[in-house]
């Protein structure tokens, strides 16, 4: 049996990873789980999957959890706990399903120990794409993405010569506000922004999808994952969510992955790669697919998409500023401290004030969080 660790097991993606693993109890075993502070959900997962170790955010969470669980399990804390789980010698596969930047060091630990890395988290790749790619090359590894868009691209490129790629086409639902006017966006509430029309996701990624920052992140992620420059990446609004992304080749042919909008599909594909599983998701019924429509995104209404492109052009530490600025701005919006359109305004402010650092180290990148926080508070 293969031992698996899931960082971010109580989040939307992490729970779907456990759903897929449950289908193959004789093949996969949950060795470790990591969560922030969702004690009740983590307790249920411990009872069902019986991991050897779990990690939580802080000491007080550890104390509360230890009082609730009956069977002994090793409880770890914070970044050290994530690194321990992702680099453990008995672990073969590490799922990184956390949101934000918390798993940055854990990713490097997994690379150094040559684990199979399956990634849902965008922020770590965006922040440190250049450094990560150097480490992956050094250890002759690659990351298998489970974002539906990047999984689709990953599958489309299989067996192809990358020299034949003309462009990558990232599809986008357009979020809940694609038909809103600019004035309408000024009045958007957190409750409305959390209602995605296609996907069921956590609060952070739901807001990023509403601002289209999520798609901006995906542009940068695609550039690093597939070694493709910005000018070869295009975003199209595809409200039906049937085509998960496409690749256009020099001869004019376009390959795409059509599937039901269910994360368990990409998860199962990554888990079994280079083979395929038995089908964790019901197949797409093409006869019920009435239409496939495509539109150009409006970067004036959704400036986060443009800001992401600009940060990729600048390179160096600019993408890290984008990540940290967005993370802080989204928290402020969810707490009711700023308006919806203040999110891109704050991000733009942070990018303008930052002086990009060439060839940054991991510690240099992690220090940017404080810099951005100081800019916002100043």
Description:
It is a single chain. This protein is of the alpha/beta class and about 375 residues long. It has two domains: about 1-120, NAD(P)-binding Rossmann-like Domain (Rossmann fold), CATH 3.40.50.720; about 150-260 and about 280-375, RNA polymerase sigma factor, region 2, helix turn helix motif (Rna Polymerase Sigma Factor, Chain: A, Orthogonal Bundle), CATH 1.10.1740. About 45% of the residues lie in helices and about 15% in strands. It has 16 helices and eleven strands. A seven-stranded parallel β-sheet has the order 4-3-2-1-5-6-7, with helices on both faces. α14 packs across α16. The model has no long low-confidence stretch (mean pLDDT about 95).
Keywords:
single chain, 378 residues, alpha/beta, Rossmann fold, Rna Polymerase Sigma Factor, Chain: A, 2 domains, seven-stranded parallel β-sheet, 11 strands, 15% strand
